[in-house]
Amino acid sequence: MPRFALVALLGLGLAPVALGAQARPEVFIARGPDEGQTAPDFTLPWANKDTVGTGEDAYGLWRDRGKVVVLAFYPRDFTPTDSLELSTFRDRYDDIFGPDAVVLAVSNDSLSTHREFAARLGLPFRLLSDPDQSVAARYGSKDVGGRNRRTIYVIGPDGRVRWRDLRFQARDPKAYEVLRRAVRAAGRG
Prior knowledge:
Elements: H1 3-11, E1 16-19, E2 22-25, E3 43-44, E4 46-47, E5 52-53, E6 59-60, E7 69-73, H2 80-91, H3 93-96, E8 102-107, H4 111-121, E9 126-129, H5 134-138, E10 151-155, E11 161-165, H6 173-187
Parallel strand pairs: 7-8, 8-9
Antiparallel strand pairs: 1-2, 3-6, 4-5, 4-9, 7-10, 10-11
């Protein structure tokens, strides 16, 4: 790879990925809604540790207009990093989100897997199932590998994106503090 291309990639926060004997750039293009734009509406089935919601009981973003909504896309149930992220949400729920925010975690896992995962971790929020990743695609969270990228959106009471992190670092404690501040700011209008 030419040196100028490598410098340009590194300057953008991208790294080359080795393929055989030759390095090729990793492509990262996110096309989700920007801050200030209206969050795309959707309806998805969900599960928590006790039950599932499908059909008439499916979750619709429009139902929480007037509230702060935290929409966290994650790759897969039962993986170490996803377990860490959602357990941190559980353990620091009041600190990060407060009493009025609605927290939703989205992957393309099945409802039965979500229910088992939520029960095992004791999660106090819904896990939404997006099996064809149609919602993840609208939020720039669909990865080419068939799983979601770890992204988070904070949607204000007016339905507009107030903050987003397209590469949420679940292992970095500072990331949760930034998220906490974003949720608080969204609640203030």
